[in-house]
Amino acid sequence: xxxxxxxxxxxxxxxxxxxxxxxxxxxxxxxxxxxxxxxxxxxxxxxxxxxxxxxxxxxxxxxxxxxxxxxxxxxxxxxxxxxxxxxxxxxxxxxxxxxxxxxxxxxxxxxxxxxxxxxxxxxxxxxxxxxxxxxxxxxxxxxxxxxxxxxxxxxxxxxxxxxxxxxxxxxxxxxxxxxxxxxxxxxxxxxxxxxxxxxxxxxxxxxxxxxxxxxxxxxxxxxxxxxxxxxxxxxxxxxxxxxxxxxxxxxxxxxxxxxxxxxxxxxxxxxxxxxxxxxxxxxxxxxxxxxxxxxxxxxxxxxxxxxxxxxxxxxxxxxxxxxxxxxxxxxxxxxxxxxxxxxxxxxxxxxxxxxxxxxxxxxxxxxxxxxxxxxxxxxxxxxxxxxxxxxxxxxxxxxxxxxxxxxxxxxxxxxxxxxxxxxxxxxxxxxxxxxxxxxxxxxxxxxxxxxxx
Length: 453
Ligand SMILES: [Zn+2]
Ligand SMILES: [Zn+2]
Known about the structure:
Elements: H1 8-24, H2 30-43, H3 48-62, H4 71-86, H5 93-102, E1 113-115, H6 116-133, H7 142-157, E2 164-166, H8 167-177, H9 182-193, H10 202-212, H11 214-218, H12 229-233, H13 243-250, H14 261-271, E3 275-276, E4 288-289, E5 292-295, E6 302-304, H15 305-309, E7 323-326, E8 395-398, H16 422-447
Antiparallel strand pairs: 1-2, 3-4, 5-6, 5-7, 7-8
The structure holds zinc ion (2 copies).
One zinc ion binds at residues 295, 297-298, 301, 317, 321.
Organism: Elysia crispata
Protein name: ZZ-type domain-containing protein
Domain ZZ-type: 275-331
């Protein structure tokens, strides 16, 4: 495992600086900071893992995401930063699942716990495999990636410092922090929380939601996106919930308030390399990278994400105007895609959602017997591990801007859907078969007691 290259003399001052910053930003109580920095000066007992973690959090703070006035974007920015620092964003969801399976996590009993070194093994597999797929010059530092990810996940899910983490939590976190389409991640999750007839198990969904919401909590956004039993109960009606019901609710726009950061995080990943040849009216930069926000009232008034997220305006434009979020640029032609609506109260105003973009999957789990000939262990389409960006051609409508920086969250409403190519349909069919096989394996594992793992 890589160690921090810090000699003992510099060690104390590094810790002290990090503590000071964490303390200033409210991440660390005065007692904690004083206690640990004094201990460092005396005996240097602070574990390397803790130092790395604090450094990571300190670097995140340095990005100044906290000035973003929308909790949804703020949280997505922080999680995206962590994805990149740990290089999890380079590992495709399907490769991540393979790493989980290679280390036997798929045959563990429900509720099984792992020791930190078992988590390290999973991550070592995932990052080592990644290095085999990318050119040598793009290889990631496996030890460092493993250490950072392990430390962060342990801090997020092992709040009592028992040295153990639930296998299920590992799957939830790694799946959602890897790259790939949200719908694929959710389909994998559904295989873990449904029964052999393809119906959602409510208690497992509850556990899933709880673990999923540990992610925003781990970047200090737990107050904006909090788990509650009541919220969990209202996700689905009483009827049996199929994979399509699940996907429909989980990708709905507006989605449930506690999950609004999730599609935003996935959109953010897809829009990162998009450049709009349009000037930002607030900061005057000549082109806009990432999200672009266009006023629905002012003629041809565009803002870059940096300005919009921070509430910057110019001229006659005001924060009260409706805005539309764009993830692509098309000159002269009408922008295609869906729109969302944002509001102060974060509560969905209608039940519309992005169904038109969702593929439809069989409600019942597919039989796996005849599939071994058809489905490779890893779908061919993921072997290259490239980002699966098919979703950058929509835009989002935003209305009723928040009145104050204290405002937290967004309300979104789907208006129309984008088009999917037949290539994507093929990919979805392939993934559907693959997910069905995973589901069968998971169910087998659950129904077979005392499987060694
Ligand atoms: Zn700007
Ligand atoms: Zn305007």
